[in-house]
Every structure is written in structure tokens, then in C-alpha cells.
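This entry is listed below:
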Amino acid sequence: MATKPSTRLETFTNPAPGRDYTIHMEIPEFTCLCPKTGQPDFATLLIDYVPDKLCVELKSLKLYVWSYRDQGAFHEAVTNRILDDLVKVARPRFMRITARFNVRGGIYTNVVVEHTRKNWTAPSPVILP
């Protein structure tokens, strides 16, 4: 059993690759360090994605997120890096990460980044009566 952070993200085969569906994850305990002060920054990460052939394995994601605890990073940079790393390993049809950082200096920061695979179009929403 892994008891330390890791930057290694793992995947598993999508059980329904012929269907567009959304996976939603909430990570309420993301922590990194302010690169200016060294003080901790806390955030909730919301990850929504439409998988293609692979899905992100949750235990590896937990350890990956933990790996940022002692790293200095601006909110914008860390959110984009997480998206890039997840897209690299999972190659989703679509992915959006919203990082909702706790207040710092009286300012709340939300960073939203997206990836859309070339030639993929989101299905039209179903509107029920």
C-alpha cells in the first residue's frame, strides 16, 4: 500500500468506450504552497471529463494530488499543469478542471481550464418536458 505522494498517474480501460458520459470528481483537500510566501494554499479541485479509451485511476490521482503539498505554484500554473498531466495519460475526449482556491489576501480565486480533443463535439443536451 502506497503511503507517500507520487507523480505517477495510472489509468484503466474505459468500460463503455462507445458512449459519451461524464465522470465528475471533487477533491476538497488540494494543497500547494504560495511561491511568494511559502504559505499553504488550499483548494477544492473539480474534475469533469468525458473519457475515450481510458479512465483515470482514483488511487493514483489521490497520490498525485498529494505530491503538490510541498510545491510552490501559482494557482493558474498548477491548475494548467494538472490538466496537462491528466490529458497526457488519459487522452480524454473532453476535460475541465475547476480549481476553487480558498481566500488569500481577501481574494477568492477560481481557475477553470479545459481540453477538447480535436474533432470531438459534445452531444446536445436532452431537454425533458
Observations:
- The CA atoms of residues 28 and 44 lie 4 Å apart.
- The first helix runs from residue 58 to 66.
- The chain has a mean pLDDT of 95.
